[in-house]
Amino acid sequence: MFTGIIESIGSIRALTPKGGDVRVHVATGKLDLSDVKLGDSIAVNGVCLTAVELPGDGFAADVSRETLDCTAMNDLKSGSPVNLEKALTPTTRLGGHLVSGHVDGVGEIVSRSDNARAVEFRIRAPKELAKYIAHKGSITVDGTSLTVNAVDGAEFMLTIIPHTLSETIMASYTPGRRVNLEVDLLARYLERLLLGDKAAESGSSQKPGGTITESFLAANGYLKS
């Protein structure tokens, strides 16, 4: 688990094809690795990866085909800056929100504009994620815990303060860029919980955009006529 509070901006040192998937080597910048062991989790742009090598000034992790297909990791190349966060501990301050590091989908930066000293971004999410994104709710963009300021269909607005711009890779975002999105963890579990006993039936989707609809809620007594 993570908090979505980025601890360091690192960079991709190398991406090495390995048996059909990829081993990524990450330079970790100011991230303190003194308490990191082989097998520990580190989020890279919001993707939870397992450290399999610790050369001292970074780490290496294996990236599966599933992760490459479901995230924007394929867009990275040698030298790409990345957001980094170590897994939280029982004494970690939860300054953001609970983040699993399991990306739900890939969004796209639609627009960027200045608002006083802040920067506003409009991001388009995959349609199946739209129902999980709420005004003033939490969302994770490339591993950064953020507050949604407005929602318009599958698009949502973020207002990013100077501190966040300087401590994450968001300062480099331009329209057209793809970003990793993780919706609020509680929203995902709530949808599954509302399925009740039907969750055990074959065909009940565990992926965002599954089987909860207005007609389902009405049929199961969650909506009054």
Task: Describe the fold and architecture.
InterPro entries: ATP_synth_asu-like_sf, Lumazine-bd, Lumazine-bd_dom, Riboflavin_synthase-like_b-brl. By secondary structure, this protein is mainly β. It has helices at 65-70, 162-167, 185-194, 214-219; strands spanning 8-18, 21-27, 41-44, 47-53, 58-63, 81-86, 105-115, 118-124, 138-141, 144-147, 150-152, 155-160, 178-183. A hairpin with a 2-residue loop joins strand 3 (41-44) and strand 4 (47-53). The mean pLDDT is 90.
Distance between the termini: 40 Å
Structural class of the secondary elements?
A: mainly beta
CATH architectural type of the largest domain: Beta Barrel
CATH class category name of the largest domain: Mainly Beta
> From the alpha-carbon coordinates, what is the Rg to the nearest angstrom?
18 Å
Provide a compact summary of the structure.
The chain is mainly beta and 225 residues long. It has helices at 65-70, 162-167, 185-194, 214-219; strands at residues 8-18, 21-27, 41-44, 47-53, 58-63, 81-86, 105-115, 118-124, 138-141, 144-147, 150-152, 155-160, 178-183.
Distinctive features:
225 residues; mainly beta; Elongation Factor Tu (Ef-tu), domain 3; seven-stranded antiparallel beta sheet; six-stranded antiparallel beta barrel; riboflavin biosynthesis; Lumazine-bd; repeat; Riboflavin synthase
How are the SSEs placed, and which strands pair?
Layout: E1 8-18, E2 21-27, E3 41-44, E4 47-53, E5 58-63, H1 65-70, E6 81-86, E7 105-115, E8 118-124, E9 138-141, E10 144-147, E11 150-152, E12 155-160, H2 162-167, E13 178-183, H3 185-194, H4 214-219
Antiparallel strand pairs: 1-2, 1-6, 2-5, 3-4, 3-6, 4-5, 7-8, 7-13, 8-12, 9-10, 9-13, 11-12
